[in-house]
């Protein structure tokens, strides 16, 4: 049995909100066991790795990416100023969550506890998705609020600086979210209740 098997839980319909297109995917990794300790150990061993960190995985993880494009067009007023036009923004997010098919005879209390933990994990990861979508809207505002520039190169440099600042601000907000949220991504916090159950 492949314990690391991943399954696509589905892709939510691509949706456009304002001028931002959003695509959200859900993936799962399979865990097995008939007691809390085994489930927790599976999550710790098989959970998705956290980008930039070595060691064991986490219970759940969301990766989001914002993509953008625009045209630097010279104004038609003859003054040679360049402005961003035809702005397109997309946010792609992928949530990875554990999946457990309770074996026959699994204790009802364990099944209930697992479902509660999964609800908490999903709610936390949806917070990361919201941060990704908010970042996409920040990038849209950063581009569209960029004033005209005397050259295409100057415009692109100004837009790049504004985008970098917008993304850095949201990444910092995301770090604070993980640090202060009632439920972090780490298996120890998410599945601590499983460990406490004997």
Concise overview:
With 198 residues, the protein is an alpha+beta fold. The chain contains 5 helices and 5 strands; from the N terminus they run E-E-E-H-E-E-H-H-H-H.
What do these coordinates show?
There is one protein chain. The protein starts with 5 loop residues before the first strand and ends with a helix. The chain is built from 5 helices and 5 strands, in the order E-E-E-H-E-E-H-H-H-H. It is elongated. 27% of the residues are buried. With 198 residues, the chain is an alpha+beta fold. The model is unreliable at 1-11 (pLDDT under 50). The chain has helices at 36-46, 108-144, 152-180, 187-190, 192-196, and strands at 6-11, 15-17, 20-31, 61-74, 82-100. Helix 2 (108-144) packs antiparallel against helix 3 (152-180). Strand 2 and strand 3 form a beta hairpin. The protein is 43% helix and 27% strand. It has one domain. Strands 1, 2, 3, 4 and 5 form a 5-stranded mixed beta sheet that branches.
Give the CA-based shape: elongated
The share of residues in extended strands comes to 25-35%
Number of helices: 5
Give the proportion of residues in helices.
40-55%
Average predicted local confidence, pLDDT? 83
Specify the structural class: alpha+beta
Q: How do the helices and strands follow one another from N- to C-terminus?
A: EEEHEEHHHH
Notable features of this structure?
198 residues; alpha+beta; 5-stranded mixed β-sheet; 5 strands; 43% helix; 27% strand; elongated; disordered N terminus
List the helices and strands and how they pair.
Elements lengths: L5 E6 L3 E3 L2 E12 L4 H11 L14 E14 L7 E19 L7 H37 L7 H29 L6 H4 L1 H5 L2
Parallel strand pairs: 3-5
Antiparallel strand pairs: 1-3, 2-3, 4-5
Helix pairs in contact: 2-3
């Amino acid at each position: 049995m492949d314990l690391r098997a991943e399954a696509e839980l589905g892709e939510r319909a691509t949706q456009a909100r304002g001028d931002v297109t959003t695509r959200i995917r859900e993936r799962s990794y399979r865990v097995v066991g008939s007691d809390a300790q085994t489930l927790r150990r599976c999550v710790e061993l098989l959970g998705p790795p956290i980008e930039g960190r070595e060691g064991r995985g986490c219970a759940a993880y969301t990766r989001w990416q914002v993509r953008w494009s625009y045209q630097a067009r010279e104004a038609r007023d003859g003054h040679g100023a360049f402005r961003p036009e035809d702005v397109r923004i997309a946010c792609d997010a992928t949530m990875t969550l554990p999946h457990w098919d309770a074996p026959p005879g699994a204790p009802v209390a364990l099944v209930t506890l697992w479902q509660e933990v999964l609800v908490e994990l999903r709610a936390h990861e949806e917070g990361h998705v919201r941060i990704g979508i908010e970042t996409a809207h920040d990038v849209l505002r950063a581009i569209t609020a960029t004033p005209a520039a005397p050259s295409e190169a100057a415009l692109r440099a100004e837009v790049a600086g504004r985008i970098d600042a917008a993304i850095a601000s949201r990444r910092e907000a995301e770090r604070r979210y993980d640090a202060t949220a009632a439920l972090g991504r780490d298996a120890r916090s998410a599945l601590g209740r499983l460990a406490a159950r004997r």
